[in-house]
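Lay summary. Proteins are chains of building blocks that fold into shapes, and those shapes determine what they do. In this project we predict the shape from the chain. Here is one chain we studied, written as its sequence of building blocks.
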Amino acid sequence: MSRTPQHPLPSGFTRDTPASAVIEGIDLTGRVAIVTGGYSGIGVETTRALASAGATVWVPVRDRTKAAETLADVAGDVRIGDLDLSDLDSVRSFARTFLASHDTLHLLVNNAGVMACPERRLGPGWESQLAINHFGHFVLTTELLPALRRAGGARVVALSSSAHRLSAIRWEDPHFTKEPYDKWKAYGQSKTANALFALELDAREQGNGIRAFAVHPGGIQTPLQRHLPIEEMVAMGWCDANGELSPMAKTMFKSVEAGAATTVWCATSPQLEGHGGVFCEDTDIAAPADGKPFVGVHAHAIDPEAATRLWALTEETLG
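And here is the predicted shape, written in a compact code that computers can read:
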């Protein structure tokens, strides 16, 4: 098993490179992709880029009407299926529907998620951010493994975040049953889980031609912030009382299309042939954080032992 060093290639792209520039010259004709959350925020731009290169793109959705409206101007072969990541029966149903019509899956982008939401319990009492962001995508990916293996060179992209720095996996209390719920720690834990999932999936499946990547897309103003009250975003310096981006946020945040670029790069770039299991940001492999708060990847999110432990814990939790 090969391990990709966790340091920039460098790719030659920048933090502001748009997804359209990353996909330029890449032909995905005959390829099939799935983009969860592909009808909102950076997911739309990911769908647009993959479809523009000729891929058939499946977008699993909770709201068909909203999806149809949002994707109306996306050219190419884009198809909609029903999926709710908070309901694992729904996840399995989507996978069965997809597998009934497709033998192979070349690109799986686990893009959907929730952030810093109020406390909510799913299933037998699972904390909702871990359940939706990690468990839902874990089940989707493992259900689709036969099609990914048959692709003879598939890629899986897991959307993480710089917020992984906020929490390693809370091994003794992952669902906040012993300590009071903290929405940001819960989000951070789920994003660490996404990164560790990509690491372990790559280790397990690279022999079957599957390579996996974790992505921090960057700071972008999208519907992901829908659970944050305006007062909290003002306090963090993101915007003013009218919801307008602050001068700081304007320099820190990316455009939505630039936010999709790292995902598209990981899913399609020939620069990553033979690579996998790494955390990426700003359209390149990320460097170790080395104490920097918002740049790079922290050690707990790229720890192979933690990745293996999380996979086992997830399987045990899901039965």
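What the prediction tells us: The beta strands are 32-35, 56-61, 78-82, 107-110, 121-122, 126-127, 154-159, 210-216, 278-281, 284-285.
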